[in-house]
Amino acid sequence: MARDLNLNSMAHFEAVARLGGISRASGELQVSASAVSQQIRLLEQQLGVKLFHREKRHLRLTIDGERLFQTTSQAFQSIREVRAAIVRQRESFNLLIRVSPSFGVRWLAPRLIEFVRQYPNWDLRVDATPSFSEFETEIIDLDLRYGEGGWSGLYSQCVVHDLILPMCSPAYLEELRSISPDPRVQLARARLIDSVKAYFRWDYWLPRNGVQGVTMSYPYRFDRSSMSVQLAKDGGGVILESTTLAFEELRRGELVPLSTEFETIEFPAYWLVCPARQMGRRSVKLFSNWVEGVGSRDTDVARVWLQERGHRMRFERRAGFSDPDGSMEGA
């Protein structure tokens, strides 16, 4: 007998019993009241018992009806909960990202609200650490890495270009200009702040820009670019840093370019990195497209901002560069 029970009739019965009437059940089920009554009669015929006492315009469960309702109520509630969970899972995405600390705090975090507004149902976790992911042993969906790209065995896609130039606070620039109007002399006498994990550092940049007489013994060295930017903003010296990390300070005038005489270096700096198989996942692909679009937009904005102020651009990649400790943070 149980194999022959009509599940549609059971659903109609459960709705009538739960809501206390045929009219309410018909409204929830979006069928006519006569259709509900017909399903109840069909179920009673199948079971061979009465499920309701019919008292004028009211229905009251019989003992058999009570027993059936307890079971069907639990069953259909479980079905509704499972259905809701499936819908939530279908409409949401889970993504675990690893990102270098300074890049995560200074660039990614202020832009995540754009992502949240576009994809409000995502479950997103960001792990900020300078260490690269070991994808075969760690549960990480993708890295946002700083470097030159081309990591062996991994898919890599550049998402943000860096624009590199010397910067300092307006007050410190005035101090340097009181020493000499020549920006090369200014740099030779300046306090240079070294971001030790940056791709372009002073020891590479200075001789290529005709700056002589620098001892290369930096008074301030940091392994976090965010600390270098903060000290420069506070008047502590000159940084060779990127607009990716310091553009808001430039735009607000808290940092200023040292001189338009030096070309701004542009290079592909931040990469989305993961095993190639991950790119088949819709969540990874959507995030990849989003971060690449935002990165390209922001690079264009910074490039135009600098060009309008007389800065020239030069695309450059350091030939033969390798990171000695394999954990270049730079940001």
From TrEMBL:
<dbReference type="Pfam" id="PF03466">
    <property type="entry name" value="LysR_substrate"/>
</dbReference>
<keyword id="KW-0238">DNA-binding</keyword>
<dbReference type="InterPro" id="IPR036390">
    <property type="entry name" value="WH_DNA-bd_sf"/>
</dbReference>
<dbReference type="InterPro" id="IPR005119">
    <property type="entry name" value="LysR_subst-bd"/>
</dbReference>
<keyword id="KW-0804">Transcription</keyword>
<feature type="domain" description="HTH lysR-type">
    <location>
        <begin position="5"/>
        <end position="62"/>
    </location>
</feature>
<comment type="similarity">
    <text>Belongs to the LysR transcriptional regulatory family.</text>
</comment>
<dbReference type="InterPro" id="IPR036388">
    <property type="entry name" value="WH-like_DNA-bd_sf"/>
</dbReference>
<dbReference type="InterPro" id="IPR058163">
    <property type="entry name" value="LysR-type_TF_proteobact-type"/>
</dbReference>
<dbReference type="InterPro" id="IPR000847">
    <property type="entry name" value="LysR_HTH_N"/>
</dbReference>
<protein>
    <submittedName>
        <fullName>LysR family transcriptional regulator</fullName>
    </submittedName>
</protein>
<dbReference type="Pfam" id="PF00126">
    <property type="entry name" value="HTH_1"/>
</dbReference>
<keyword id="KW-0805">Transcription regulation</keyword>
